[in-house]
Amino acid sequence: MRHIPALFRRELAAYFLGPMAFLILLAFQIIAFLNFWELVDLLSRPQRSLSALTDPMNSYISGSTPFWVAMLVAIPALTMRLVAEERRSGTIETLLTVPVTEAEVVVAKWLAGLVMYLVLLLPFAIYLPFLYHQARFHFDLGPVISLGIGLTTAGMMFVSIGLFFSATTRNQIVAAIWTFAILFLLVVLTLLVYYYAAERQAGWAEAARFVAVLFQMQSFAAGQLDLRVLTLHLSVTAFMLYLTVKVLQLQRSRE
After folding, report:
1. Where does 130-226 have alpha helices with state H?
2. pLDDT band at 93, cuts 50/70/90?
3. For residues 175 and 91, is the Cβ–Cβ distance under 8 A?
4. What are the two backbone dihedrals, phi and then psi, of residue 202, each rounded to the nearest 5 degrees?
5. How much of the chain is helix, strand and coil, in % rounded to 5?
6. Which of 12, 55, 105, 245 registers the highest number of CB atoms within 10 A of its CB?
7. Among the listed residues 180, 205, 202, the one whose alpha carbon sits nearest the alpha carbon of residue 191
């Protein structure tokens, strides 16, 4: 694994060779500002429910529709090129002929995608000190840390899914569409399935709630750090990275 740092720097630098990374970062900065502005406006209302706003992260991130819509678009956009572009241009063959393993390539690309994902979250964190010190709204830091951990492990899972689909095709658009479909399933459809099951009092309603990412993030934002959810995220991440390594090994054996 000694080649991972060099490969990681290569992949991270590749993000900023084009305008896409900058446009995504700008979009998330705008969303963070609008969410913060809406939160400040909500806190300034005399009729606000303080009990509902003990943790501002519930309305600031976990319950923000623009945030999740942007995330569903950003993750496929950031991961679609990781392997697909190299396969299309033929540079993946050159990369795999040097003394590096498929596992090193996969881990380096995944780490680069994960760092970019975490960078997208930075604008949301930047505004919180202003809310705490300038607005004198002394919210509990525990739920913020809990949500940060949950968003990180969820991001690890999201990026690994995008990396896998990027490795299965030469077409970046196809990789992005498949990644979007799976993330849409995890974020949106699981929520709808839970409501459907709960309305009919089905026995599997709690199982649907457990895998629904939005419910997971709401629990994290409330300070409930469920180790079962973290284990789920990390298990899916490890499995998808393993599949990606196997895909690259299969492609290498055929060439």
Report:
1. 141-167, 172-184, 190-199, 205-211, 213-221
2. low
3. no
4. -75, 150
5. 80, 0, 20
6. 105
7. 205
Report the largest interatomic distance among the alpha carbons of the chain, rounded to a whole angstrom. 68
Q: 202 falls in which pLDDT band (50, 70, 90)?
A: confident
Looking at residue 52, its pLDDT comes to: 45
Whole-angstrom distance, CA of residue 251 vs CA of residue 244:
11
pLDDT of residue 62: 72
Q: Which residue has the tokens 């709808």?
A: 192
Between CA 135 and CA 128 the distance in angstroms is: 10
Cα–Cα nearest to 175, from 163, 183, 166: 166
In this structure, what token pair is assigned to residue 141?
A: 């830091």
- The per-residue pLDDT for range 114-171, each reduced to its tens digit, is 999 999 888 888 877 776 666 566 667 788 888 899 999 999 999 999 999 999 988 8
pTM for this predicted structure: 0.88
Residue 195 in tokens: 């409501």
Is the distance from CB of 121 to CB of 158 less than 8 angstroms?
no
Q: Is 109 a residue whose pLDDT tops 80?
A: yes
Structure tokens at 103: 């596992």
C-beta of residue 164 within 8 angstroms of C-beta of residue 248: no
DSSP code string of 35-94: HHHHHHHHHH-TT--GGGGSSTHIIIIIT-HHHHHHHHHHHHHHHTHHHHHHHHHTHHHH
- CA–CA dist 63, 47 (Å, integer): 20
Structure tokens at 204: 């599997």
